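Objective 1.3, modelling of assemblies. Example input:
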Amino acid sequence: MSFQLFIFYVFAIIMVFAAARVITVRNPVYAAMFLVLTFFTAAAIWMLLEAEFLAVTLVLVYVGAVMVLFLFVVMMLDINVEPLREGFVKYLPVGILVGSIMFLEMVFLLTQRYFPSENFPAPAAKPANYSNTEELGRLLYSDYLFHFEVAALILMVAIVAAIALTMRRRSDTKYQRPGLQVQVKKEDRLRVVSMDTESKS
Amino acid sequence: MDNLHLATPEIFMLFASCAVLVVDLFLKPGQRHMTYWLTQGSLLITLLLTYGQVGDTAGTAFSGAYTVDGMSAVLKSWILLIAIGGFVYTRDYIKDREIANGEYYVLGLFGVMGMMIMTSSNNLLTIYLGLELLALSLYAMVALYRSNADASEAAMKYFVLGALASGMLLYGMSMVYGSTGSLDLATISQALTTSDAGSTGARFGLTFIIVGLAFKLGAVPFHMWVPDVYDGAPTSVTLYISTAPKIAAFAMIIRLLVDGLEVLSSDWTLMFAILAALSLVVGNLLAIAQQNIKRMLAYSTISHVGFLLLGMVAANPEGYSASMFYAITYAFTTLAAFGVLLVLSRNGEEAVMLDDLSGLFRRNALAATVMMVALISLAGVPPLVGFYAKLSVLKAVISAGYVWLAVIAVIMSVVGAFYYLRAIKMMFFDDPVDSSEVPARMDVNATLAVNGLAVVVLGIFPGWIMAVCVRAFAG
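Predicted structure (tokens):
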């Protein structure tokens, strides 16, 4: 077993363990943390596959941005997880049965006999000066331009939908009008009241 | 960047949708009809551009990601035509319910764009992106009716199950990509033909792809979301979901399974046979028990999806063109049925129960007649277009040797005729619960009349569309 294979198994085991913990821990904050660990080990495995740019992006975008947002939501909203767990024990036997049947079927099908690894040779290692980022960029803006544009369109639909679904005009909302605010004069706000002086007695 | 001109309809549509989005921001509340006319105008121009491609135009653009062929131009023209008709029907309905914002129209346009991309895709990634563009627009359109709790619930269900289906589809696609080493449908087909190496992996992926497709189409046993979404969504969105996307879904099946994985057709015909038989039985039997007309039409959709898949079971050009004819005619017949429901849902009232239809003939003769024509056509009674659609599918199935499937289909069509005829009996012979007249705008009346007439005339002369469908698979 080469050292690289050893590293792969270490990361793979950590990843499967972390992914399993995401759905089994009781505390949602811990679940989010385990999800961070899952993403991080996935990034490490991508690094082994020489997909450096994707690995770094996964850490930056998912671990750095998306999961922080996730944690915010989990902490801000007081989610009661008890109703979500209702019926867990009731459906567990059926779930285990169906899951294990599917698992066994997959194992049976995807073994060496029907799915030999000789059919899928490992790609040759790239030279040291090969830039993964540059190649991705070149492909993205040439062969995959159409997909790039459609993906951009999907993001726009997401923005339109998010704004349309959450923006509502409420009658009790207070607005500031900066235009009127700066036109305020001393007379509008300040009233000088003349009073007789009072003597200390 | 060769052949960029092939994508002119999509490119125009993209610019037009963005223009509608921006122009709408500057409109005052009283000027909303501008958004409507701009939407219709952009759909109409796109339709003209697309229709210009019908015939001999063929080729690929964007490094093989996008294709125009005999099938795509025809199906896209129908999608656009049905979208235009749908917006005519929905105009007053969404205005009454205060969901007629610019966003409704823009999401509708983006959804149409997604369908066009699905129809023109030549690549696993393009199919997936087009599907997601359509699906995201649909989830948002269902949820837009925020003052209605049912609509929010339906949107949630639709979103969760839709995401699950997308996951299945994507997993299947990744297995196919892994075993054949390409995203391009033609290359996948060639790789599977020339060598046997990737076929196990591709078959494994195929199973997941079919589960994803069945979820999206609403075929039994993946149909649970259909009645809830049809019922919970505002009727205008139900109309949108149940018409043009069915044509796009048909195109997606053809692209994935015929253009890409036809080598494995011996595997997927059996899966489709099971899905079709179950959909026909469950859809028709459960539709009988429904008192809610939107749920009844939802179960009827499930049974028609069964028929659509039946044509695919034949796995030959005859079957594909029969299915294509079925998808097109089903879409515009359902358009008429939901158009009538929208005419009835006026002044804040919803026409959802079957009782709301009773005595319709005395309240609005045109709407009742169009509804009758649509329902009889869905039941498959000659000389309407639904009869010819069913006949050509059955012919293809029998000549492919699946007589048992044809027998199930015929028996279930007879069962299905019961609930369509019950609705017609209520419209014409029962006393109305509320005998007030149901007025409709001029343009809605005209569209209903044309739509109803199309169901009749194309039923008597089906040759024109059938010839187009046959030519789409002749090459």
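The first helix of chain A runs from residue 3 to 24.
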